[in-house]
From TrEMBL:
Keywords: Glycosyltransferase, Transferase. It comes from Pedobacter montanisoli. Residues 11-211 form the Phosphoribosyltransferase domain. NCBIfam families: PRK00129.1 (NF001097). It is an enzyme of class 2 (transferase). This is Uracil phosphoribosyltransferase. One of its GO terms (molecular function) is uracil phosphoribosyltransferase activity.
């Protein structure tokens, strides 16, 4: 399943537009907040596809029938750019555990790059639903690498991938390598630069959120 909210009329499209706007981007707090709000929006949408059970809730005036999650998902994030979206997802799934993955582009000889993954910090994931967030899905290499590590190492039950902006190439790569994953995307852009930046995209999400890195 692929959900592209740019094809629909919803408030999240306003957040995406502000993320892209080069003037609004100068306010890093606003940039982080928009990523957080997109994370929360997708959290609500994903919640409609999870399992629930009926419970009775005692109110001051009687008993109400309610529905609650059978099991909380685990919110996983690729550092550092994914942190604001992680916070947005946690605002919806406020009892969820968290997992963090360190992955980055490493430039090699000839100017090409490989994806280097160094560390995973995760709770028990056996049989659980995992929501993996990263604002940009460019080539899809880092997403596939991190997701396969979680799937192979921890035998997770279901995987939801959340990104604000994706490229057509990145979506194809993820679908080819993670055919069972559900993709929740703010928008899909057709082009990428030779350095694998999405066009029109929005630039470097990590730098815009937290400052330029060396």
């Amino acid at each position: 399943m692929i959900v592209d909210i740019s094809k629909t009329s919803c408030i999240a499209n306003t957040y995406i537009a502000e993320l892209r706007d080069e003037i609004i981007q100068k306010d890093s707090m606003r940039f982080r907040k928009n990523l957080e709000r997109i994370g929360a929006y997708f959290g609500h949408e994903i919640s409609k596809h999870l399992a629930y059970k009926n419970i009775e809730t005692t109110t001051p005036l009687g008993i109400a029938n309610s529905k609650v999650l059978v099991q909380q998902p685990v919110i996983a994030t690729i550092l550092r750019a994914g942190l604001p979206m992680h916070q947005g997802l946690l605002s919806v799934f406020d009892k969820a555990e968290s997992a963090f993955i360190t992955a980055y582009r490493k430039v090699v000889k000839g100017g090409d790059f490989i994806i280097q993954m160094e560390h995973i910090s995760a709770p028990e994931l056996e049989g659980k639903t995992v929501i993996l967030a990263d604002p940009m899905l460019a080539t899809g290499l880092s997403m596939v690498l991190c997701a396969k590590e979680l799937i192979n190492e921890y035998k997770i039950e279901k995987l939801h991938i959340v990104s604000a902006i994706a490229s057509t190439e990145g979506v194809k790569h993820v679908r080819a390598n993670l055919p069972k994953a559900h993709l929740w995307l703010g928008a899909i852009d057709d082009e990428m630069t030779t350095k694998a930046y999405i066009v029109p995209g929005l630039g470097d999400a990590g730098d815009l959120a937290f400052g330029a890195k060396k």
